[in-house]
Amino acid sequence: MSPFSRQPISDLYQSIRSHISPNSYTDNLDIENVVTNFFVSLFPVAYHHVVHAESDTHSSDFHVDYKNCLMHTFEDIQPFGDIPRIVARSLQQSVGAATVFVRALDRGADVLASTEELDSEYLTHKCKMHLLKMSYCPECRGMIKGRVKSCYSYCSNVMRGCLTQYVGSLDSPWTSFAESMERLLGLVRSKEGIETVIKTLEVKLSEAIMYAMQNGPELEKKVSQLYFFIS
């Protein structure tokens, strides 16, 4: 079945990846639709190559009209039981937290980028002179306190005077960033986090296929009835 299921699975992972973006403004309904569409597209493949397997059809795909018919009956048949809803719910929670986490990282990058303004060309001539003088201060050069005359206060005054104009603009966004990261890191690393959910997604897909196989006779009966009704 793998050659025919490769594209739906690839599309699923690509959709999840596109949702985890600082520029993504999708909601839980979008994730639910992504998961539903995936299982709908997987159903014809699973049914033809696993549930309704025949020796003379394993090596080839089947007619597109039959595929469309099976996809059309997905909601009525529910071939994978509750597994699609379970997968959708876990992805809604984990993708949502991961997206906020990525946005926080993006915000942090903006804050760090703003520190580039602390380049010497933005400093006043007076600050440059004080910084030059301070560079010869033994305490600021890491020498052991007590062996030389301390100039800690001078260092503090120079740094405070030269950096005050930047501290105000950096403090608020950086504090917001730190608080967001602290709150979200636990969610992302938890058992409901995106990493764990993605790692267990393959298991859930296998469980869905096994569910369809175990209920194969009943599925074939439902498909035959619905296919006859539709046709």
From TrEMBL:
Alphabetized InterPro entries for the sequence: Glypican
Bilayer topology: Lipid-anchor; GPI-anchor
Keywords noted in UniProt: Cell membrane, Glycoprotein, GPI-anchor, Heparan sulfate, Lipoprotein, Membrane, Proteoglycan, Signal
GO BP terms: cell migration; positive regulation of canonical Wnt signaling pathway; regulation of protein localization to membrane
Domain of life the protein comes from: Eukaryota
Signal peptide per UniProt: none
Gene Ontology CC terms, in alphabetical order: cell surface; extracellular region; plasma membrane; side of membrane
Pfam families: Glypican
Membrane-crossing residue ranges in chain numbering: none
UniProt subcellular location: Cell membrane
Family (UniProt): Belongs to the glypican family.
Annotated function: Cell surface proteoglycan.
Protein name: Uncharacterized protein
Species per Swiss-Prot/TrEMBL record: Phlebotomus papatasi
